[in-house]
Specification:
Elements (H helix, E strand, L loop, with lengths): L6 E4 L4 H12 L4 E5 L7 H10 L4 E4 L5 H11 L3 E4 L6 H6 L1 H21 L4 E7 L22 H19 L4 E7 L1 E3 L18 H9 L6 E4 L11 E2 L1 E3 H14 L5 E7 L5 E2 H12 L5 E4 L8 E2 L4 H7 L7 H14 L9
Parallel strand pairs: 1-2, 1-4, 2-3, 4-5, 5-6, 6-11, 7-10, 8-13, 9-14
Antiparallel strand pairs: 9-12
Helix pairs in contact: 1-2, 1-8, 3-5, 5-6, 7-9, 7-11, 9-11
The structure holds nicotinamide-adenine-dinucleotide and uridine-diphosphate-N-acetylglucosamine.
Uridine-diphosphate-N-acetylglucosamine (UD1) binds next to helix 7 and strand 8.
Amino acid sequence: MTSPRPILVTGGAGYIGSHTVLQLLEAGQRVVVVDNLCNAHEESLRRVAELSGQQPTFHQVDLLDAAALGAVIQQHRPQAAIHFAGLKAVGESSQIPIQYYHNNITGTIHLLQALAAVNCRQLVFSSSATVYGDAQEMPITEAAPLSATNAYGRTKLFIEHLLADACIADPEMKVICLRYFNPVGAHPSGRIGEDPNGIPNNLMPFITQVAVGRRPHLNIFGNDYPTPDGTGVRDYIHVVDLAAGHLAALDAMDRISGCEAINLGTGRGYSVLEVLRAMETASGRPVPYEIQGRRRGDVATSYADPSKAQQLLGWQARRELSEMCDDAWRWQQSNPLGYAGQP
Ligand code: NAD
Ligand code: UD1
């Protein structure tokens, strides 16, 4: 896969981006990261360099600044891009929807224009299982009906549509939209991981913060769902497996044409209580919880049919829930305040 032209990674200082940049460097790729650091620290890239022994090139640039982005892309002339950059908080997206549409959609348009100017026609896009809305059939295949229940989800859906249109207009263009299920965990070194701002919205970082004593208890959003123990069921996927899916997608570019949407999940669902128990085992600490009402917009159950990823990318998730919890816990314990807590 080594090539003299680099891989451009937008949002590469973030949670999933930093794990993917590490694997790209370990695979011998040159990597150029563009990130405005609105939800990340440059420290993540310093640690990626320390782990890999390789230095990614970093440009602190906003995708909304078309001129600056264009200049970076003209300078490096990437062979392909992986596009992680985006705002991702569901609740916030309902409060400031225009900012979400502008950042995520306009940012993507600027990226496509700048890539076209250097004849780069290969893109991997971070989509989400949120594009399935309240799916009726489990496991969820890529052929399931698409819908969105919030502004964040709609940005993902619209971007998938605009990428499909771009591929129809240009037969040489190749795009893989990776629909992630629930990314969790951290690199096994404990050096890079998820560093949410403020109170975590997602389950795993909330649970690790309870286990480490930063928060008194977990609020479980509903125990009256039609699931085995009444709590919500999700397809949690280790971020290291997820990152590997991006390298597999780059490798598959020669084998696809046009725009493909591909699920990245394990195919197995776990309930909130199962995750909580697994974290108690990993940490050796109790995780107190209180049952609350359901969270608006939540679905009872969501898990992937990952067979298309196996067929098209030759990829499958390998890490179990216990490993996800062990690694999330190691990251949390060694970085109790995230990257900002480091000297
Ligand atoms: P993250 O916030 O850690 O990473 C996103 C990165 O993009 C951040 O480093 C941020 O600073 C950067 N960014 C945002 N807007 C930018 C802009 N205009 N210009 C330049 N940089 C910008 O999030 P993540 O969890 O690593 O997610 C990566 C991608 O995957 C996002 O697009 C997200 O929507 C998608 N996704 C994430 C999840 C999840 O649970 N983490 C699930 C499904 C999809
Ligand atoms: C959420 C987003 C989804 C996004 C995904 C990415 C919502 C409604 N959906 O999905 O769009 O793609 O994150 O990671 O925000 N839970 C608790 N207590 C908590 C946190 C969560 O009980 O403090 C439960 C939830 O009700 C759910 C499960 O844990 O059953 C997982 O929640 P979460 O980690 O937020 O992910 P999703 O809801 O699947």
